[in-house]
Amino acid sequence: MSMGSGFDADAVSDVVSQRADVLACLADGPKHNRDLQEELGVSRSTAYKALRELEEHSLVERTDDGFGLTLTGRLAFDQHAQYTDAIEVLCVPGSLLTVLPSDAIDSLAVLRGADVVFAERHAPNLPVNTIEDIVHEATALRGMSPVLLPLYVELFHECIVDGDLDANLLLETPVVEHLFDQYRTAAVEVVETGDTHLWNIDETLPFGLVVVDEPDPMVALIVYDDSGGLRGVITNSTASAVAWGRNVWERYRSDARPITLE
């Protein structure tokens, strides 16, 4: 490349992607060709070819200690590694993300480090079991839901009326109407405990959400299809995921109305 010129972004991107294994080896410091051969398990000619390509694109340079990353090489590899990591994070929930609206999630925080439970053909209730375990173990949580399953009514009634769960639940308008039409006695008993606050929102919720505040903070993103079928649950207990869940819940709550029995 001539001095005083810019680089071909497409060419550099291709080389970084194709030679990422070499760049990763050099990330800890300069190495000689023979060291790369041993670490990567490649022939002398293969290592030489890779280094020559990287050097031609100013991604590596020769030093007294062998080949080392240039500033461009280090920054380019860092960006490539972040991109690769993001793709891997997105692939864990896989098909669950295809069910959600394209603007449903604005951050990888809830996905990075998450566990995913899918509804399998042979075991469709696996996500339900996960939700039950989360609610049973919680003493304080916030939740929101675009659907109402009979199990949810039984589960929250048991944990609130007969247990010590403190809950704030945000529900879509059709869900509220169905709750008080079909399960009015249970709903009234829950509200009358004073330990639960129900919120009504007219907006369509893109997914279900449970944010556990106590005793062990965690978040569960619950995915339903267009017909209300439960497709899976994404759970995460990292601080960034919990913060994401709390922010999402508060954002929807700001547009909701408290439900009273009056």
Automatic annotation (TrEMBL):
Pfam families: FilR1_middle, HVO_A0261_N. Residues 17-88 form the HVO-A0261-like N-terminal domain. Gene3D superfamilies: Winged helix-like DNA-binding domain superfamily/Winged helix DNA-binding domain. Residues 124-255 form the Methanogenesis regulatory protein FilR1 middle domain. InterPro entries: ArsR-like_HTH, FilR1_middle_dom, HVO_A0261-like_N, WH-like_DNA-bd_sf, WH_DNA-bd_sf. It comes from the Archaea. This is Predicted transcriptional regulator, contains HTH domain.
